[in-house]
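U., I forgot to send this yesterday:
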Amino acid sequence: MGVNRTSQRLASIAPSATLAVDAKAKALRAEGADVIGFGAGEPDFPTPDHIVEAAVAACRDPKNHRYTPAPGLPELRSAIADKTLRDSGVEVEASQVLVTNGGKHAVYTAFAALCDPGDEVICPAPYWTTYPEAITLAGGVPVVVDTDDSTNFKVSVEQLEAVRTDRTKVLLFVSPDNPSGAVYSPAEITAIGTWALEHDIWVITDEIYEHLVYGDAVFASMPALVPDLAGQCIIVNGVAKTYAMTGWRVGWMVGPNDVISAAANFQSHATSNVSNVAQRAALAAVAGPLDEVYAMRTAFERRGTAMHAMLNDIPGVTCGAPEGAFYCFPNISGLFGVDLGGRRAANGLELADLILTEANVAFVPGEAFGAPGYARFSFALGDDDIATGLGRIADLVS
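Result:
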């Protein structure tokens, strides 16, 4: 009696707000409601055919019906090393690559590999909802640094230095960023990387949106710009966003050999190897052409431009132009306290529920990302749905 049925560690985990919003929207659709969901960060394109065909062939090959090395198929690890040089400008060996069960698993494993209890991890906000949970589960302490639209949601070296302590172990760095869509310039990345190097701070840099940059924005990898940082830097990445492969669950982490070896040992006990069929598909993706990737990026850029304009046309909403990923992150605080269909919302959580109920439109409020007053709208859905969904919100507000 009185004994917790689950551990405090797991009981303290907050559910994924993005998946929760998407699930609620899908449940309403199942009941017959015409819901448009801006919640999930998932491309609406099918996985390119050559990748699917590689998986079909892999299914028929008996060697893929067996266990394989826990760190990943040797040929996939080699291809990821080649891809890291091609896209990030960072030269690594195949032994420095660990293939994981999706990018989210790579994030958790990276924190597990670096954090001892009480180690502090600097986590700029807005942040992807999983980051603080993964840090905490690994024994680390998230140290949140707030940013806002006045700086395009970018953290400065001065802000990082202000929170640095003797317990600071890791800086989490994300560019292009989820949820803000911000992309750091090479000069900004160099300054932050140099600061981390000077203070012997590890960097975990999430490059999952590397190919999704728009306008004048450019992707740059921190260890490429600050090469001496390579010995204290982990790159996490995956096939989900770039190749429209969210359901295939293949990610990876790249880092120093000792860290990758320890992480591989951990994975060997936690999950064994990633699905061999999915790994064969990932091999076709990372070693294949980027033509379809660029076509998807062109579509995302068009959608992001349209969404940005439509959001700014809604009274009480202001939004900066997305530079990367596939999200707009508008300031919605101007809608708090406004009569909308006979109801008023005091914060983003209440506003999201109000708009879902009154307009059948789902989005994720900024509270989920440590940024109250803002909201994440994904433009990884069709042009017509974007126009219809934002039109419903505009009609409700007007």
